[in-house]
Predict the structure of Cys-Gln thioester bond-forming surface protein.
Amino acid sequence: MTETSGVTNRGRRGAAGLLVLTLLAGLLFAMTPAQAQPIIGGEDEPFPVGSPFTELQIGPLTGELGVLDVDGYTGPSTFDPVTEGYPAATDVPTTWPTRNDGYAGVIPANDAEGNEVLTYCIDVFTSTQTGIPYERGEWNESNVRNLGYVAYILQNYYPTVPDVPAGVADNVRAGAVQSAIWFFSDSFVLDPDNNRQLFDLTSEIVADAIANGPLAEPAQPDLSVSPQTAQAPASGELVGPFTVTADGPSTLRLEGVEVFADAAGTQPLAEGATVQPGAQLWTRSASTAASQGFSLQREVPVRESTVYLYDGSIPGRNSAQSLILAENSTIAAVASVRITRVASGGIEVTKTISGDAAGLQSAVEVLVTCTPRGGGPVVERTLTVPAGTAAGSQAETFTGLTAGSSCVVTEPEDGDNGLVTVTATSIEPETVSVVANQTASVAVTNEYARATGGVRVTKTITGEAAGLQGPIEVLLTCTPPDGGAEIQRTLTIPAQSPAGSQSEDFTGLPSESECVATELENGDNDQVSVTATSIEPGTVTVLEGAGTPVTVTNEYARATGGLQVTKTITGDGAGLQGPIEVLVSCTPEGGGTALERTLTIPAESPAGTVSDTFSGLPVGATCAITEPEDGDNGRVTVTATSIAPATVTIAEGATPAVAVTNDYDATVGGITVTKTISGGGAGLQGPVEILVACTDPEDGSTIEQAVTIAAGTGAGIETTTLTAFPAGSTCTITEPQDGDNGLVSLTASSIDPATVTVVENANEPVAVTNEYARAVGGLQVTKIIGGPAAGEQGEVVLDIDCDDADNAFDQQFTIAAGSLAGGYVETLEGIPAGTNCEVTETATGETDTVVLSTPVTITPGPVTIVEELVGEVVATNTYRTQDQGGDDEEQGGGGGSDYGGYYDDFLASTGGPWGPAWGIGVALLVAGGAALIVHRRRSM
């Protein structure tokens, strides 16, 4: 807020104040003029009522709102209420200055809508009175200390908490709270002798606040207008905008002004209009009153501890005590704008545009900046000339400028835009003093010329054939932005220019022209091909004064053609030849390193044709076709060779054909292998393989072929002829697999001859003979008799059953009744390998008195006869008498586990009695059950 009629704004609220206004039971007290006494409103000091700028006004005191006649002491500035605390009654510093206040308690106030709220004084040294206007402030604006402790008191005591302090009347509660507030704000200590009850209550409140600590400042209601002040010309021009910040709609109040919702002043807002948050407002002076402006009012909840400060609007009154809201209240919050009406004058600005480029310029902006005499808000007015305005003059008058203001005229935007250049500018005069009710003149002139720029064209030549190309021509075509005639410029590069870059600058082109580079001649000729071309960028815009770059790049390769080579293989030796290699060697025109291509045909490729096309050969090159390898290898003879044509000159894009032909005559022989199979085992043998390995007399390489006789082939003769061995080769004949497979034995084998020499066009004979005999093995059957009743059993019979073709080895093995304990052996020899034999017991030897202690065991079961091996089967019988029961140990032996002295007796056997060694063997067999013993027979 700015000063108005000598009254200070919020920034002048330096000192705080104490309400020393006392009105008891509707009576006004007129005391001595000391600040501690009540000051009442009278005819000599009127106050405004219902001002749109007022948020609170002090109301009249009626009833018992506080305590009268309060005496005490005020401490020095060095006293700290928080650290020192409230003194005890016996320690009150009576040496401090004394003070008498006629009233201590709540102070009623009314908001703009007439709602009453309660406040407390936070400034004991400054007066106030009924009708003094207030507005919201912040704690730091009040210049009052310790407001955090005051906030604690207000949140926890009367009237926020109605019955605290307890046990006293409301006016006493209010007096105690006010006295505690003054202690923190102004170091005021009550005189205990004047009012001991009030002293004790105040002391308790102070101690509680210090113990619990300060509270934070409450948040302000969200309602404000910015800026809060402005000067309005007496001539009635609008000023603004004023931006509204709020959390909801507010009500507009006016005093001596008109307010509009738009800058043009076409949307007026009446008294009481609703204004939304974020709105922008404009205003103008509508009266000659000293107090002018508008405000926004909105009922909002306001926290206790919110500070209210004198708004400085009463002429002749510079201060009033500061107040603090006593309890949470709903108040009509006010945000205001104060207007100062000022005398005004004007400035007419005339803008003149000239020059040959007039009409191409951008927008022009002329700025008039006026600073009021003695300071104040700066006013800016702008003349804007649209882009493209033709040559000529136009004027605009700015009125409502504060008289005495100093105005500076500048041109922030002069129309320079790349299309034009400002060649001359003048502002006459540049500074103007505003005179009331007069209009000063200012002339602003700009002269425009056409802006120009350039394009730099760079030609880059690359590639392995760079320097062989023909002439190159690059055309630059530029179209001016105003649609004028095209402008063309040309860059020429001579033929055979070497690899690298060449540039040319084309200047004087109208700026903003669109230029396109094209390549009329790209250097392509019969020696080179253009393999890549680029123009970057394709289109450029000419910039004022700049050389915009364009790069044109060509990559050159030698012009090429091709050659097709067809190889033909013929003759009765076709397919027996070695590898073939056809070489194409091309020498560039004018000399240089020859370029070689090769057609390779693997050895033993069959008769027919093979083709390959060689591309990328330099145009003009002479290509010679030769055959370094013709396939001659000793197995064949090359009887005819042709290359037609033998020399070719390469032409661009052409692919001539060359035919290479070889006729081969075979020089080979063969071997006839006769295989004879015989013997009793013929037909049971495995596969037979006869290998013929021949060494080529030419290169020493080995050629192998094999004859295979399938397994199981019967007795007889098989003949196989192996061919295509080089004549003169030395061949070795071996038999890697001879058919021996366990079922047969090879009894005779011969290769005759084992080495032969191949004769051209002949088949050398070789005889291979194998004689096979049937492989045989044997079987041994052992019968063990044991147990306590051994020797008392009946006849035991074992059946031996073999699956040979004629059952020649089937028989019975009989152990006579009464045979003593021991082992009895039967051996069979000459059984064909692969035969399966099984032993069973058809008579167990049990009688009416002798039985088996355990079942008969025959281990193993069926046996397969293996070549030159003897398979063994063991059958065990353990006997006891009927009256011996099943417990062999109680009968003194049996169970097959204890044979005592039985082995000292002669043991009968079909093969004869056992000796001591046989007894040990039997003992081992009995102890371990039955075992199969297999041993190699050295002779059968």
